[in-house]
Specification:
single chain; alpha+beta; Outer membrane efflux proteins (OEP); 2 domains; four-stranded antiparallel β-sheet; 11 helices; about 65% helix; elongated; disordered N terminus
Length: about 450
């Protein structure tokens, strides 16, 4: 029987090992980024907006190309006719005509300006799409990091609960031996209950974080690859904030989008002014006209005409009731507004760059300080446990040291991911964030999940 139980335990162990191996590789950032590109509705909306905006250019250019139209009609007229000294009779008249017209714009200033406006509208759409792409990278990274931090908080809460239960057993043992008071037992029990409540809250936070990640990738996320312990976090390069601010004010996609809007407003103002100018078109027509029958004369006859014509058509507005003047004023104000938007976008980009740079630099320093605090905290917990065992430390000393250690561990974990995210935001502020940056960050993650 003992041998059979040993074989059964060995079989169960192998099943567990095989199950762990099947899920050993956690989903990393690049895996989820590929899913988010095809599943995130916000990014898909931006992509469709770009494709739609790209059609503005050929649409506007078509106004400068020749246009060919054809029109045709076919009809019959019937009536009752009475001629002198004749009875009333039914008469009929057939007619059909068609016209082929070719129009070539010769001088259309407004359409030329509309084409320029369409070109910068495409530039704006490209900048908006780039902003949406970088926003997807940031949203995905933030949701991914939040889920990892939430998982680590659950793990820490459970580890703290286990430690408190162990300390509770030790406190009870000391109380039964008469070397500790009931207060130590009650204090430990209260802290264990509080740790259990913290575990419930951490589980709720984890569920919310994973739901936010699912909203981006479209499916429930599996096991996520976490940051390797002890890995060196990248620092901003160059280390001068002025360089980042200069890049941000020039290359930020929101700034480029605002500049494209301002250029389009310039074209719109010129186009509204150009409405007062004459337009010249070259018009060529070719048509046919057939008529047969007669309802006015007693003798029927028919005609069959083919005609050709080439003309230059000049159109110039003289009076419109003030509408064109109002459009010019409106376009002028829209241009002033767009220029103010450019200034606002540049200042916001500079602010984002400064804040992200400061967060990345201070975050790296905070991580180093917290790593030192964790090392010291572990030593403190160990020393207090030993001191409690020999009677030179009280129970609350052990509990306080453990609580401080777990809080520091959670702060360290969050600070590491916040620092990485600040680096991504800094790249996004300067318009340089790309999938390569995500790939570099992805290399810092655990490729194999710990069993």
């Amino acid at each position: 029987m003992a041998a059979a139980r040993a074989i059964a335990r060995l079989a169960v162990g192998w099943v567990c090992v095989l199950g762990i191996a099947a899920v050993a590789r956690g989903a990393d950032l690049m895996d989820l980024y590929g899913m988010a590109q095809s599943s995130d509705p916000t990014f898909q909306s931006a992509r469709h907006a770009l494709e739609a905006a790209r059609q503005k250019r050929p649409e506007a250019f078509s106004g400068l190309l020749p246009a060919l139209n054809v029109s045709a009609s076919d009809g019959r007229t019937v009536g009752r006719t009475r001629y002198t000294d004749t009875p009333e009779i039914n008469r009929g008249f057939n007619s059909d005509q068609w016209t082929l017209q070719l129009t070539q714009p010769v001088l259309r200033i407004d359409r030329m300006l509309a084409y320029g406006e369409a070109r910068v509208a495409v530039d704006q759409a490209v900048a908006d799409y780039e902003a949406a792409r970088q926003d997807l990278l940031l949203r995905l990274s933030r949701a991914y990091f939040d889920a990892i931090v939430a998982e680590s908080h659950v793990t820490a809460a459970r580890a703290q609960l286990v430690s408190l239960n162990e300390q509770l057993q030790a406190a009870r043992h000391s109380f039964d031996a008469g070397v500790a008071s009931i207060t130590d037992v009650d204090d430990t029990r209260a802290r264990a209950a509080s740790a259990q409540a913290q575990e419930v809250g951490a589980l709720n936070d984890l569920e919310s974080a994973r739901a936010a990640l699912e909203a981006i990738i479209g499916v429930p996320p599996g096991k996520l690859a976490a940051l390797r312990s002890g890995v060196a976090l990248p620092k901003p390069s160059p280390g001068d904030v002025t360089s980042w601010v200069q890049r941000a004010t020039a290359d930020n996609p929101h700034v480029r989008s605002a500049e494209a809007v301002a250029s389009a407003a310039d074209y719109a103002l010129d186009r509204s002014r150009a409405q007062r100018l004459p337009s010249v078109d070259l018009v060529a027509t070719y048509g046919g006209n057939y008529a047969g029958g007669n309802i006015n004369e007693p003798i029927n006859y028919y005609t069959n005409v083919r005609d050709k014509a080439i003309s230059v058509q000049v159109t110039m507005p003289l009076l419109d009731g003030g509408g064109m003047h109002a459009q010019v004023v409106e376009a002028r104000e829209q241009r002033a507004r767009s220029r103010s938007d450019v200034t606002a976008a540049q200042r916001q980009a500079a602010l984002d760059a400064r804040q992200s740079f400061a967060a990345a630099v201070s975050g790296a320093s905070q991580v180093q300080a917290l790593e030192t605090a964790v090392s010291a905290g572990r030593s403190a917990v160990k020393g207090n446990r030993v001191g409690y065992g020999v009677g030179i430390r009280i129970n609350s000393d052990v509990l306080n040291a453990e609580q401080q250690l777990y809080n520091t561990l959670q702060d360290l974990d969050k600070a590491r991911y916040d620092t990485l995210y600040a680096g991504l935001k800094l790249k996004a502020a300067t318009g340089q964030l790309s999938a390569d940056d995500l790939q570099a960050l992805n290399a810092l993650l655990e490729q194999e999940a710990a069993p």
